[in-house]
Diaminopimelate decarboxylase
Amino acid sequence: PEESVISSTGELAIGGCRVSDLAAEYGTPAYILDEVGLRRQIRRFVDGLAAMRPNSEVLFASKSLPAVAMYSIAASEGLSIDVAGAGELVMAFSAGVPPDRIYLHGNAKSDSELQMAIDAGIRAIVIDNFDDLSRLERLVTGPQHVMLRMIPGIAPQTHASQSTGGNDSKFGLRPDQLEQAVHRIRSHRHLVLDGVHVHIGSQVLDTMPFDRAVRSVAELGTFDAYDVGGGLGVRYNSADAAPSVDEYLHTIVRAAEQLPATARLLIEPGRSIVARAGVTLYRVNTVKRTGKTFVAIDGGMADNLDIALTDQRYEAYVATKFDKAPNTLCDVVGRQCESGDLMVADAALANPEVGDLVVMPVTGAYAYTMANHYNGALTPPLIVCNQGSSRLAVRRETFDDVLATHQPAMDHSSKDG
Ligand code: LLP
């Protein structure tokens, strides 16, 4: 993020906004997005790929931050959008994304969401399996572009929950099933096959698997379009090393020389676009010294499930003492009722005290996405900061929002007898 220390108070500013001002206006926990950094990162992908390979397209994997404001920023910067179901489709429509820039994914699509995509005239539906294909054969009444998701047979070194390209993946068809699928699509009078798709996994910190992914689609035959998915990893802490966007694009484009020269090349980054533009702001509720020092914040795995799911190593800082050197070794823990609700193990914080604001960087991707109601938690707001001004993109959920989905309890006061 666009981090800078405000010298007079020694506190952190995100996108030019002081954390104490953000906390006062929007409360905590809160997801904060730096719009300038985000747009700069989007342009690295869009301009970079366009310069290296003219006939190409960058799709934002919107599962990484499915918020109307994010769809709108993405579309305004020239990204197309990958949605993985009706819910994301609805948000993309609500943001005004043109249907011909939307691609629909999913390994368990229903009739109704396929119908929604068909009616809207989205750019293409990515077929994952033969049931998808049967549904489409039945539902389409006019020209419908489709792609075929294939198993690349590549399992990059990443956490098991982030590896989706291995041979036993639940996503896509086996190469030996391609011919049958292609035959069925080409013999249907309305279905138009654009090409093939693969996605190898997420948080991949090496460029080699991407080279192999492109080669794997090249081997599948001659098509108009090849989508090689997303997955570029990002730095979560100072010990991490990740390829730059430029290195990644070079790898993909060089490998794409194996593809027909006129073929369209698609990529689907999510995390690498938005992760580093986001931070989460928390307040310290408790500092407890037992065997260890525990700094307990007012959020946890309800607003960042990614940590428990992928063992990702994040960092944390006392944002209100950003100019102070760390002097306290502690575990930053959340408030959910699980020992696994550990946000940062062995963090070094600067004199953490109750009431301090704590910031966790690199939470722009898959944190808001997987927010949940564990222990009655409310989904935090999403705030967009831009050069010193801030705006609410998603408001904080309220207890009324939660109760609105529940039927009122039966009246227990009038008991018989
Ligand atoms: N395309 C497809 C078909 C995908 O399934 C995904 C991510 C992407 C693109 C974008 O991948 P990215 O560039 O963001 O790595 N919950 C996990 C991440 C799951 C990723 C799912 N698919 C986590 O929190 O790490």
In short: Residues 61, 63-64, 82, 105, 162, 199, 202-203, 229-232, 268-272, 306, 309-310, 366 surround LLP (CB under 6 Å).
